[in-house]
Amino acid sequence: MKMVMAIVKPFKLDDVREALAEVGVQGITVTEVKGFGRQRGHTELYRGAEYVVDFLPKIKLEVAVTDDLLERVVEAIQKSASSGKIGDGKIFVWQLDQVVRIRTGELDADAL
Question: Least C-beta-crowded within 10 Å: which of 49, 58, 66, 69?
Answer without folding.
Answer: 49
